[in-house]
Specification:
Order of helices and strands: HHH
Oligomer: single chain
Shape: flat
Helix content: 55-70%
Largest sheet: none
Radius of gyration: 28 Å
Number of strands: 0
Distance between the termini: 65 Å
Number of helices: 3
Structural class: mainly alpha
Strand content: under 5%
């Protein structure tokens, strides 16, 4: 009997991924079949109707100011900028002046 060659160092990770994917798929199928088998078969029309509670929906009296949208967009811009700056800050000494110049250009382009 021949042995499977595991020359690739990621072979174990791939097998673990396949086992996890298979277990997830089987769990999903078993749960779906069990819910169909155990679910009540009585489907009256009143059970399928829409039920709403709480105060009646009315038109909103105040509209949101466009300044809040501008604030949200600025937050997203600077948040994404910080996400891109984090790896640079971690390897600041390794990158040296070239990394500093690249990050300076990145910041200047965004501002």
């Amino acid at each position: 009997m021949e042995h499977i060659s595991t020359a690739n160092p990621y072979f174990g990770v791939f097998v673990l991924f396949l086992v996890t994917f298979g277990a997830f798929t089987m769990t999903t199928i078993v749960a779906r079949l069990a819910s169909r088998a155990l679910a009540a078969k009585n489907s009256e029309k009143i059970k399928l109707s829409v039920y709403e509670c709480g105060p009646e929906v009315t038109k909103q009296p105040n509209r949101i100011s466009p300044q809040f949208y501008l604030f949200a967009l600025l937050f997203l811009l600077f948040d994404v900028e910080i996400v891109f700056m984090f790896p640079w800050a971690v390897d600041f000494k390794l990158l040296g002046w070239f990394g500093f110049a690249e990050m300076l250009m990145f910041i200047l382009l965004l501002t």
